[in-house]
Amino acid sequence: MIQNPGKVLRELLQEPGILKAPGIYDGISARVCEKTGFALGYLSGAGVAAGYLGEPDIGLTSCADVASVARRISVKSTIPFIADADTGYGNPLNVIRTIHDLEMAGCAAIQIEDQISPKRCGHLNGKQCISAEDFSMKIRAAVENKCSKDTVIIARTDARAVYDLDEAIRRGEMYLKAGADVLFIEAPQSYDEIR
Length: 195
Prior knowledge:
Elements: H1 5-14, E1 23-24, H2 27-35, E2 41-43, H3 45-53, H4 63-76, E3 81-84, H5 92-104, E4 109-113, H6 132-145, E5 152-157, H7 159-162, H8 165-177, E6 182-185, H9 191-194
């Protein structure tokens, strides 16, 4: 168990190179991730939906589900991990509760996305995004109300698939201005877009 997982992750983020975070969904997958030499894990929302609920990633998990899995992982693992918190499970007030619950469960970083609720897996068609202004309020609520200054807040936008790359970048800039530590643009469609 790590005493300050956010601080450990922030130190990793300062190192040069690409930081790889394999998907984990329970204590054994976290231990395998760690034992094979990865410095970071990613508590996958799809993994929680499938591994914990036996359901597809279509917005059926709750914050309590993710926090329950995160607590089990944090006890078994000595590497930090990112928690996929879907849409934050509601409005900015719900996001605050989500951030607190996942911090207390041992998460180093919490990722929320700008889809409507119920959301869909980022690899599925038919996604929809809330307004960038509404999502910026969620990010601001997360940043201003987290318990630890070291907890990393990740803003994910699905706007590339819903609109286009320009809209995804525009939204991403708004989310960074709202205080997100890391931006995740889901579903780039070419190496040029990644660059």
